[in-house]
Amino acid sequence: MSNKKTIDDQKLWVQATSDVTKLQTKARILLSPPEMRVDVLPRPVSDYHYVPASAMEPLHMASNANIDAQTRRRVDQGKYPIDATLDLHGYNHQQARHSLEAFLLEAYRCQYRLLLVITGKGRNSANESNKLKDMLLAWINHSVLMRKVVLRVSPAHQKHGGSGAFYILLKRHKV
Hints:
33% of the residues lie in helices and 12% in strands. The protein is an alpha+beta fold. The protein has a domain at 60-175: Ribosomal Protein S8, Chain: A, domain 1 (2-Layer Sandwich). A 4-stranded mixed β-sheet has the order 1-2-4-3. Helix 3 (93-109) packs across helix 4. The relative contact order is 0.17.
């Protein structure tokens, strides 16, 4: 009797899938990620194991440390899937830094891996040396919380904003 059930199931399966065709694309279909809230303040500093910023190795732009070659290449070529994006256009320095920190910590909590942060190219900045894009790496290096979750910062591929945007690769959660 179980053999008949299996044959009937197979016939039903063939009938149900007879009009299904294979997709002709290599694109990954991603479910929409859960809504991220950057207006929520990160957990209090006391909830984290404190390590003085001076004791941490500073992060350098497009550093290859602690990252495998294939991941680095896919990120640099703009082929690694972006999990979330933050657009800092129109923000002042204080707003941008606060939003960046909340965004990075929330993305890490959601176990996201690659983020796109759009700073703009700074063409409309009043002070040439004080652009958001020039401050991004310094903010990450001077914040213990941000530095603990960020693995790599690199300029974005041209299709994602080029010199006006950055990829931020987050560390994986340790289980």
